[in-house]
Records
---
Amino acid sequence: MELHSLLFLAFAAVALIAAVLVLLSRNPVHSVLFMLLTFVNVAAMFVLLQAEFIAVIQILVYSGAILVLFLFVVMLLAGGERPLPVLNQPLQARAAVIVGLVLVSELALVVLTSTVGGGRRGPDSPERIAAVGGNIEALGRQLYTTWLLPFEIASVLLLVAAVGAIYLAKEDL
Amino acid sequence: MTPPLEWYLIFSAALFTIGLVGVLVRRHVLVIFMSVELMLNACNVALVAFGRHLDTLTGQNFVVFVVTVAAAEAAVGLGIILALARHKDTVDVGEMDILKQ
C-alpha cells in the first residue's frame, strides 16, 4: 500500500476516534479539544486532496475561530449545580445508536454498490490548476468571477450574524 | 496514486453519522452544537473529494461558503445558548421548554 493511502487511513482513524470521544467526554472542554483534533486531521485530509486553501481555512476558521468561541462559551457557562448525565434517557440513547448504525451502513452500501463519481470531467485538472499558478490562484479566480454574487451575499450574512450575536449576548435580553 | 473516492465518502458518512448520533444522544447543549459542526465538516470532506475526483473546483467553492455559514451559525448559535443559559440557568436541553407552555 502506498504512502497516500496509509496517510489517509491514519488521518481518518484519528479523526473518527476523536469525533467519538467528543461525544463521550463528560467535560465540555475535553469535547472541544477532541473536536480540535478532528478538525486538524480533516485539514490534513484536505491537503491529501490537493485542496490547500480549504485546509488553511479549516485550520484558521474552524480550529482558530469557531473552537475558540466554543471554549469561551464553555467557560462562560457555569454548567449548573447538578452534574449533567452524559447520555440522554437510555431509550433515546439506544435508539440513536441504532439509527446511527443503520444510517452509516446504508450510506456505505450506497457508496460501495453504485458507480459514484462516474460523471463528466470538469475543466480543472491538476495540470490546468498548476498552469494557472496553484490551488489558491485557481480558486480565487473562480470565487471572484463565477461565484461573485454568492460571495457578496456571504459577506452580508456574516455582517448580519455579527450584529445578531452582539445583540443576543447583551445582558438584558 | 491517491486513495479512491469511496474511502473519502465512507469516512464522510461515518463522521456525519457520529455527529447525528451526538445530537440525539447528548443532553449538553454545547456538545449538541459541536455535533452539528461535525456534520457540516463531514459534508465538506465529501464536497472536496468529489471535486478532486471530477476535476472541478466547484466543490471547493462550495466549501468556502459552507465554512462561512458555519461561522455565522456558530456566532449566532452561541449567542442564543448564552442567552438561554442566563435565562434558565441550565445547559440541559431537556429543561429548555419555555415554548411548551
---
Amino acid sequence: MKIAISSTGNDLLSQVDPRFGRCQKFLIFDSETLGFEAVPNEAVNAAGGAGIKAAQLAVDNGAKVVITGSIGPNAFNVLSGAGVQVFAGATRNIQSAIDDYKAGKLQKVNQATNGPGARG
Amino acid sequence: MIISIASGKGGTGKTTIATNMAFSLAQKDNCPACEQAGVQLLDCDVEEPNGYIFIKPKVELRETVFLDVPQIDEEKCTHCGECAKVCAYNAIFVADNKVILFPQLCHSCGGCSYFCPQNAISEVGHEIGEIAAGSAYGIEFAYGKLNIGEIVAPPLIKKLKERINEDKVVIIDAPPGTSCPVIEAVKGSDFCLLVTEPTPFGLNDLKLAVEMLKVLKVPFAVLINRWNEEYFEIDSYCNKENIPILIRIPLERKIAEVYSEGSLFSKELPEWQETFCKLFDSIVELSK
C-alpha cells in the first residue's frame, strides 16, 4: 500500500511539511517494498485550489493513506471521496511519522483540521 | 470618460471619493466641464459593495448573474483525468470512479469541455451573484454583489461593466488591492485616481497600485484622504516618481460624522462640491 506524506525534503529523515496543499513535496512510501519516491508538489504556488491539486497528485501516485500536519476542507473532502484515509498531526521527520502511523499513534481525521487556504 | 477610483490599501476612502465625486458632478449641470449626458456610478467592489449606502438609489432592476461551469456526464466519463490536468484553477478532482467539481473555483474558461476526449463535459449556469441598478440625485447607479461563498469576482465585474454608458461621466468604484478583480474593474478606464492615506501602510500599497497601473497603461494621479499634515513620505514618493497629488481631504471630525451617518459630505458640506468639480477638471486635463 502506498502512503503519501507531506515532506520538506527528499528522504526519510526530512521533516514532515505541516501543510498539505502547499507542502514542498510528497514522499510516496510503499509499505510493502519499503521503497519511497519524492514527488514535487505542483500545487505549492497555485493561486487557488492548492489542496485539491495536491490531493489529485497524491491519488494519481496511488496513495491510499495521506499523512500530514493539517488539512483543509476541500482537500479532505476529495481525499475521502476517493477513499483515501487521512492522518494529521504528524511532526518531526518522515520516518517517525511512518513509525507512528504503524503504531497507531497518529490521529485519523474525519473532517478538515483547518479552514480553506488563501485564495488567489 | 471613464474614471476609476482605486487604491492598493483597503479602507482609504475609495467609496467616499467615488460617491462624493459622482454627487458633486451630478449637482453641477451648469459647469462647462460637466456638460456631458450625466453621471454614472458603478460600484465594482462586488465582494463588499457599499456605495448604495451613501447613494440610496431606488433599485429599478435586479439581474441574477450566472457563470458557465462544467457538468459531467457520468455515462460517458472514463475518469481519465484530462479535465483536472487542463484546469488552471484546480476546480476539478478526478478519482478512479468519480469526479468532484468545485464550481466556486471555476473561471469558466471552457478548457475542460474542450479537451475532454469522451465529450462528457457540458456547461451549466452556476449563480454567482446579482447586479442591481437604479438612480438617485441624478446619478445612474449600479452595483454588483457576489453571493456568499463565491470567490471568483471578475466575471461579475465584467457583467456590471457591460452597463457602462460612455456618453456619461462614468465613475468606477474599484475593489481594494491589486489582484484580478481590481484589474477587471480598472482596465479600460481613461484615468485612475488612486486614493491613499498618510500612513506607511497607505504608501506601501500605493506603490503596488502604481506598478499595476503602469502595466495597465492607465494614466493616474493620487488623492490623499484623511490628510493630517504629519506624514510626508507620500509626498516624497510622488515627487520622486513624478505622480501628481490632486487633492487632500483633511482628517476632519465633521467629514467622519457625516460618513458614519451614511451620508455624503459634499451634500452636507456643499462647499466641497466645487472641490470635486475642480478635481474632475484636473483629471480631464491629465487624461488628454
---
Amino acid sequence: MQSAFDRRRINGPEDSYHPVFANEIHESSSHVHRIRENRKISDIRPIFLQPGLISQANGSAYIETESMKIACSVYGPRQSKNTAYNEKGRLNVEVKFAPYSCELRRSPLRDAEDRSIAVAIQQALLSSVQLEHFPKSTIDIFLVIIEADGIEGCIASGSIAASTALADAGIDMYGLVTSCATAVKGTDLWIDPTQEESNTANGTLILSCMPALGIVTNVWQSGRIAPSEILACIDACNDRCTDIHSVVAQALLDSAPNKI
Amino acid sequence: MASDLVIPGQPIPLPRGPVPQLGRGIYEKDSQVRASLVGVPRFEGSSLVISRVRPQPPTSNSVVLGSITRLSPLQALLSIMVVDGIPLPPGEEFTGVIRSQDVRATEKDKVKIGDCFRGGDVVRGLVISLGDARSYFITTARNDLGVIFATSEAGATMEPVSWQEMRCPKTGKVEKRKCAKPEGLL
C-alpha cells in the first residue's frame, strides 16, 4: 500500500464520497427496466468527433457522446527502445482516467481497469494498422478519459477516437475501426449502454469492426449472454458500426483540407 | 477537389486498362485497390500514390541528416534528425551508426574514425540497412555524402577545402573530416 502512494502529488483524503441525494436513491431503485428518456433502446448516443485538436501530437481526436468524453493523441512512429529487433511496428496504447472522470475520485496512478481498457482498444486496432510499414518503430496512442460513463462506452468510444487519431496522424491503415457496445437486459438489447444501464444488465458485448472491409477486429463479452443473443448483439452492433463509420468518415473529410 | 478525397479502406476507382503500380498510401486486398491514408490519390509517373508529408522512419536508401553523438575506433553514432528532407519532431530521433568500413568507398581498412568525424558534426548519409535492434546502418561512401557542417576547435564554422579536409576561417587551421561534396560544384 505504501509503495502505491505518490508523494509528489497533493493526495486527497483517503476516501471521499459523493453526496447521496434523496432523489438519486429513488431513481436507482427503479431503473432496472426503466425506459430511456430521450432515445430508444436501439439508438446510440449522438457522437461529436473532432480530429486534430491536440497540436503537439502527430494526430489526435476528441470524442464526446453525451457524458462520455475522451481525448486521444497519437505520437510516432518513433524508434522502439529496449526491445528486440522487430520487422513489424509495435502499437502501444495507454489509457488514463482523469481524477474527476468518475463518480468516485480516481487516483492518478494506473490501476488494473485502465490497463484492461487499453488492451481491449489495442486489440480492436491492431489488425487495422499496416504495421509492416513501420519496422523497428513504435506508435504510441494515449487516451485521456475526461468523463466516463461505463467501461463499455470507454472501450467503444476510445477505439473510435484512437482510429480517427491514427488516420489524422497519417498512419497507414487497412480501414477505419468503429466500435459499438450492447447490453442484454432480460430479452431486450440495449445499444450503447450507460454506466447505470450496464450495471443492471445480464451481460454486455462490445464489437469492433472495419465496416469498409466487413472485417470484425475484436469482440469483447462479459456477463451471461446466450449464444442466440450474442448473434443478435453482433448483428445490432454491426449495423450501428456502419452508422458510426459515416460519422468518422465525415469528421475526417471535414478536417482533411487543413492537413493536406 | 474535396469530392476526390478518400479515407482508409475506401475502394479507389481505377481507369480502364492495366492496373497501375501502387505506391504509398494504397494497398490491394482481394483484388480490390483501396486507400490506406486520408488524401487524394494521384499519379506520380506510372504509380498511383496518396502523398502525405509526415515524418517517416528511415528505410534502406533514404538520405538522412544527423549529428554525431559518439565516436569509437570502430564506429560513429549518429542521431538522425531529418529523413528524406522531412525533419523528425524533437525528441523522436532515430539512432544510426556509421561503421569504419562504411565511411568511404576506397582504402576502407585505413579509415580512422577520429580523422573523419567529430562530435557535433552534421552528416549527410545513406541508410544501407535497418541494422540491429538499436541502430540503423548508415554509409557516407559517396562523393555527396559526409560532413556538411562542422565547427572548429576555435568554435567557428569550418569550410571544406578538399574531400578530407576542412579549414577554420578564424585560425586558418586545417582539420580532418570526410566532407560531402557541396551541391552545384563541378
